[in-house]
Amino acid sequence: MAKNVDIKRAKILEVAKRRFAHFGMAKTTMAEIAKDLSFSKALLYYYFPDKHSLYTAVMEYVVNEMIQKNEEFLEKSQDVEKALMFVLESRMDLMKENYNLFEYSSSFFMQNPGEVGKSLGPFFEKAKELFAKILKIGVDKGELQVDDIQETAELLLFAQMGMKAGILNQEMNDCFFPSPDDFDMILHKQKKMVSIFVRGLKA
Amino acid sequence: MAKNVDIKRAKILEVAKRRFAHFGMAKTTMAEIAKDLSFSKALLYYYFPDKHSLYTAVMEYVVNEMIQKNEEFLEKSQDVEKALMFVLESRMDLMKENYNLFEYSSSFFMQNPGEVGKSLGPFFEKAKELFAKILKIGVDKGELQVDDIQETAELLLFAQMGMKAGILNQEMNDCFFPSPDDFDMILHKQKKMVSIFVRGLKA
DNA sequence: TTTTGAACATTTAAAAGAATTAGTCAAGGT
DNA sequence: ACCTTGACTAATTCTTTTAAATGTTCAAAA
Asked: Which residues form the HTH tetR-type domain (chains A, B) (predicted)?
């Protein structure tokens, strides 16, 4: 029974998440995390092979939590537009709460494209698949008409990334550190975008 | 009569454009530009106050050329979707030919947000206005129904930025140096995007 | 199996110096 | 007065070096 190990891993994840979300990946040390848990640095390496794995595990933990909430929502409501809005909102909430967690991913992106493909790519895939799932609901209900669901889901995802990039660029305060207002603005644009997009797919 | 001055400025712009487009802003020196024109570096500063102004002037020169072509197209065809496609295509051509010219703008963006607002912001504005103009054609013809044209144009622009960002991220070769294939892929996605978007605005 | 302190290795940060390049100026040519 | 220039200065970028911080390993102990 590996139960004990799992509990400990969960504790580590919890603490690491707090630090990562607050100060970002770069500015939290393994020593700090260990100290928070009041045990030795070396022990961290007993449970996680390296810092990067720990980071990825935290990401996975956080993202899965959200995905699950989304899936649950999908069970209840079969309304395509509402479902998409819900996804947008929970994504945004997640980013607000754990901004520095993702900040690292974004900036790491631009520097180590090779590595990040394996650790960050999956999250994009998950987001894409979620969109695809929602679109499929619309198609099955005969509400929407789309030839290639996968590709359309990707389009939708990219368009929403664009909203973020667009706002961040034109605000251009400390670039890459969206203010709360920025988040609201991004969400607002994304919603409008989705609205038009879905309308454009109506059968 | 400032004719002579204008001719010289034009010559400088022409040469500077070639170098910037080839090697980018950072890796072309004022000395090189001067040498290409076979006159002294100091003379450049007689016609342009500094390097940044020269760069901006080149950008303006290049972008205006494209905008004008677009406006001409608009005179002929009043078809909204075709007009948008034309804009996308000419934008992409421009980027293919002068990639490093824009590359600098993008990367400068993320570092000196304050400065770039004045030198790069106007180009975004122009693009936005062009989209707005096209959308207005559709509205005037009664084809489209949009409440806020300015905002919708912005949405469209951002969405297209997203296509670029999205493709560049998932290709992740040497990040930020799109291959010719990438350009094609981006254009393809952008066209699909526009298609759906316009359909979503149909009256 | 789990935990640790101490040692090791790798990354980052800062400082100093050299080299490149942006930008200025007084003077000369037209 | 309008152009043009070479030589000068100032600012920036590029190396190199060094020191510090931090990630990672490991033998030994609980």
From this structure: 6-66
